[in-house]
Amino acid sequence: MTRKTSSQGHSYYFNEKGLVGNQTYDLNAFLMWKGSEQMFKNNGLLLLKSIDLSSNHFSGEIPLEIENLFGLVSLNLSRNHLTGAIPSNIGKLTSLDFLDLSRNHLVGSIPWSLTQIDRLGVLDLSHNNLSGEIPTGTQLQSFNASCYEDNLDLCGPPLEKLCIDGKPAQEPIVKLPEDEKLLFTREFYMSMAIGFVISFWGVFGSILIKRSWRHAYFKFISNLSDAIYVMVAVKVSKWRHRG
Questions:
Q1: Could you write out the DSSP letters of every residue in 92-130?
Q2: CATH classification of 50-168, choosing from 3.30.300.30, 1.20.1330.10, 3.90.550.10, 3.80.10.10?
Q3: Domain spans of the chain?
Q4: Burial level of 99, CB count in 10 A (0-12/13-18/19+)?
Q5: What is residue 84's three-state secondary structure?
Q6: Nearest 5°: phi and psi at 18?
Q7: SS3 category, 48
Q8: Under 8 Å between Cβ of 161 and 138
Q9: Based on the number of CB atoms within 10 Å of its own CB, is 10 exposed (0-12), middle (13-18) or buried (19 or more)?
Q10: Residue 21 carries which DSSP code?
Q11: Tens-of-pLDDT digits for all 243 residues of the chain?
């Protein structure tokens, strides 16, 4: 049986043969995708173009056999509970245009083979536990930083976190020697004492030296105490009358 189908610039030619006499079963397919023609034969899985298993509860590691689905164009395994590392030879999927492995529990580094997928247009590895440096000098830097976010130990462009020897750079921790700590503490308390003395004598020294200021100060204190006394006496008198 022979079929030929085309849609929006993509087409495939399908030729299927059954068992006739002693002849074996044969399966051939030619696929035209984005201007590139590829032939697949015998293995039906090679005809698979898209896998979308997102938003499930799958657990365990990504099967290594997925590297052999050379015709795969779209792979979406996001929002699951997948663990382990990204298959090291995922770069074999050179026809891959869409890859979403976000929101899992994947660990390890981003495989260098991923840089071999020139057609990759959509990538999302965010919200995992990936670590190490994002392979540099490749199209992986052209993706938005959000494609790699929430991987605490991942570093390198396009992320702002820099790498040192392939590991995230740590913020420098400044530790003072014990003698410097003591010197800093002593100088701190000395400056507080000096500031208090200067402030105290700056106010009261002026009052003691200048008679008019001294008289005004004591008059203010006397008036304030009289006002407080009157206020308290009125409150007590009202309380007694109520009683």
A1: G-TT--EEE--SS--EEPPPGGGGG-TT--EEE--SSEE
A2: 3.80.10.10
A3: 2-46, 50-168, 178-242
A4: buried
A5: coil
A6: -95, -170
A7: coil
A8: no
A9: middle
A10: T
A11: 334 444 444 444 444 444 444 555 455 555 555 566 666 555 555 667 888 889 988 899 998 888 888 888 999 999 999 999 999 999 999 999 999 999 999 999 999 999 989 889 999 999 999 999 998 877 888 999 999 999 988 998 999 888 876 555 444 444 545 555 555 566 767 777 777 666 655 666 666 666 666 667 667 777 777 778 778 777 777 777 775
Copy the structure tokens of residue 110.
Answer: 């981003």
Tokens of 49: 């173009």
How much is the pTM?
A: 0.54
